[in-house]
Every structure is written in C-alpha cells, then in structure tokens.
Amino acid sequence: MNPQSVSDISVVALAGGVGGARLIDGLDRVLGPGSLTAVVNTGDDFEHWGLHISPDLDSVMYTLARLSPEARGWGIVADTFQVLKEFQRRGLEDWFQLGDRDLATHLVRSRALGRGDSLTRVTGHLCKTLRVERPILPMTDGPRPTIIVTERGEELPFQEWLVKVRAAPQVREVRFEGATQPTPQVLDALGAADLIVICPSNPYVSIDPILTLDGVMAVLRDKPTVGVSPIVGGKAIKGPLGTMIHDIEGRTPSAEAVAAHYEGLLDGYAVQRGDGFVAPFPLLETNIRIQSTRDRIVLARELLEFSRSLT
To answer: Which sign, positive or negative, has the C-alpha torsion 71, 76, 78, 82?
Structure first.
C-alpha cells in the first residue's frame, strides 16, 4: 500500500447490515474528502406495500446522515409508525416495520425506478437530499435477490426468512439469483482503491452477494484487503450469523471460521481481543464492538494504521 497519510488513501468498504454501516461511519469520520466509497449489498432488496425497499443501502445512508438510532442501528431516529398501525388495523401485511419518515425514501426510490432511473442514480439523489457526500453505491442496478434454502427445502427471500419467520428455519444453502453484473461505478471504485475493507457484515448474505458478481474477486485479489470479524467470543455481534456458520459449514462460530470463508482474499484481519488465532496473515486484536461513535472512530483509525503495513 502507498505510504501516504492514512486520511488520504482511497478506501472502498464492502458492506451490508448494521455492522457494516457502523464501520463505514467510523471510516467516514476519519478519512478525508473523496477518500471513501461504500459498495453495498442489494441482495436484501425486495418489494413491500408496492414499494422498492433497499434495507442495506438505507442503513448506510441513514447512518452517514446521522439519522440512524445508535442502539437499534436501522431506520430513522424518533420515527413514528402511524401508517404501519393503519395497515395493522386493516388486517394488511405488517411484518416488516416501515416508519413514516422512512416511507418517504421508499416512495422517492420507487417513483424514480418506475420512470427508468437506475438504482445507482436514485441512491445518489437520495444521498444528496440527506447531505451525504460519500458515494454509496449499490453493488448492481439489476435485481439480485438472496434466497435462503432451508433444511426442509423451502426457498425464502432473505427478508422473509430473517424478519417474517424470525430466522427460525435452519439454513441449508444461500443462493443468489438474477443480475450478475456489478455497476461500472463499482468496478471503477474498486479499481481505483488503495485499500478494500470488508466490514463486519454477515459473509453469506451481505458480502458474498458482492464478491460473487462478475469480475469483483479478480479485482480484489490485486488489492490490499482487510476484514473485520463479525464474531466476538463465538457469538455474532448482531443477527443470525452464529447459527448460519454452524448450519451451512458445520463449524463452530468464530472469527477464524469467518476468515476461512474468505480464504485467499484477506491480507489482514481485525478481531476482538482474545479471539486471535494462527493465521496466514497479520491479525489486529482490538475492540471491534463499535456501537458508540467513539468506538467506531478508534477502530477506523486502528484499521487504517494496521493496513499501512500490508503489501
């Protein structure tokens, strides 16, 4: 990696979910202007109430707009749910919670997509209206749904599995359908990056959808790439990853198990203190619990300094 100041290097962060949004927030607060691009999973995207919902894109956008509730990590702080209550009163679908302010985002997105705008274009517009200056790029402009195949052979869209049935069915396989082409903007950002950061996101349903797009892995193998573990002390920081590691790969959940999933890709890896293991690359043992703003900033700085020593 080039020896320039860590605040000036060009970083691309691959992300999905709350953990990814939180690390991107830390990087945003540390890196200089024009130095950070977020490439975000869209495998979670789905249609609800006739609207196009992009949960991971919105989590990153709201976090960088300083609108995301710090404890919950999704949606808009202090949002109300009057529309949801009306849906409940009328016996309509209410399993996915959409706040009233949040609805404006989905309405704008759906209207723009309906008139032919790309997801990349409308995401840029939404970011501009919320004064988010960092580029937030959907991994692809085409639909690429993540499908959960359960042990009983059911095939469920990811959000239905995660939210509607509360991740209860055991997972046998995760499959991706639809578009396989990353956007030109994603390939350009990856090609220009000095460093790739794989955020502490679920590898199966947040990062793999990005990595399996055509040409992405080929670019990453030529770039310094560091990951941050989404597992602390054998448990997922957030979400169902712990049980997924066991169900899909038959392994005990650990930081090492996630690193093994990224075999051949990582040049360095950040884990919680005490979660170290014998690895073929350098480890950074530190605090990776980053709910607070201060912790996000500290980890971002440590991660960038750690990355300077990688080749």
So the answer is: negative
